[in-house]
């Protein structure tokens, strides 16, 4: 049903590409010691806006603010490497999709970032497949 309604680019993104983007960001956040509340606050800002375009733009602004706070030495700021990745990924999502596709794509990305971050996996992981391998080897011990 969804395949008939949604664009093929969106379909590819939501079933494949988003996992690689989100795992790279989530694991980087874990490696860099980002606090869980930072990720949750980013999602909260996104969810606070009803218009998809506004939701992504305000989320980008919030992430930029949090990176700025970190660069000024504030304890509650967001690690710049994580913030830059989130902003770049959301910018690309914003440029690719509109309306409901935009909301679904951005929401999927942000929640996957959170889940990969919370998985407990650390290390150099750049795609979904390597995440699964690392996760299985870590927890099979």
Characterization of this structure:
Helix content is 77%, strand content 0%. The chain has helices at residues 2-5, 8-31, 36-47, 52-71, 80-96, 99-118, 128-139. 33% of the residues are buried.
Q: What are the defining features of this structure?
A:
141 residues, mainly alpha, 7 helices, flat
Can you give me a brief rundown of this structure?
Helices cover 77% and strands 0% of the residues.
Largest pleated sheet? none
Query: Total number of β-strand segments?
Result: 0
Measured as a percent range, the helix fraction is over 70%
What structural class do helix, strand and pairing data support?
Answer: mainly alpha
Q: Extract low-pLDDT stretches.
A: none
3D shape:
flat
Number of helices, where a helix is a run of at least 4 consecutive DSSP H or I residues: 7
Helices and strands, with pairings:
Blueprint: H1 2-5, H2 8-31, H3 36-47, H4 52-71, H5 80-96, H6 99-118, H7 128-139
């Amino acid at each position: 049903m969804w395949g008939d309604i949604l664009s093929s680019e969106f379909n590819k993104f939501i079933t494949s590409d988003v996992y690689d983007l989100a795992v790279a960001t989530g694991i980087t956040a874990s490696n860099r010691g980002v606090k869980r509340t930072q990720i949750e606050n980013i999602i909260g800002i996104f969810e606070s806006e009803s218009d998809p375009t506004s939701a992504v733009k305000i989320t980008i602004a919030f992430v930029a603010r949090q990176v700025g706070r970190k660069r000024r030495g504030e304890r509650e700021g967001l690690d710049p490497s994580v913030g830059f990745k989130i902003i770049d990924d959301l910018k690309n999502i914003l440029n690719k999709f509109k309306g409901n596709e935009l909301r679904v794509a951005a929401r999927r990305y942000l929640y996957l970032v959170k889940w990969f971050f919370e998985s407990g996996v650390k290390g150099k992981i750049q795609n979904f497949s390597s995440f699964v391998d690392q996760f299985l080897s870590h927890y099979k011990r």
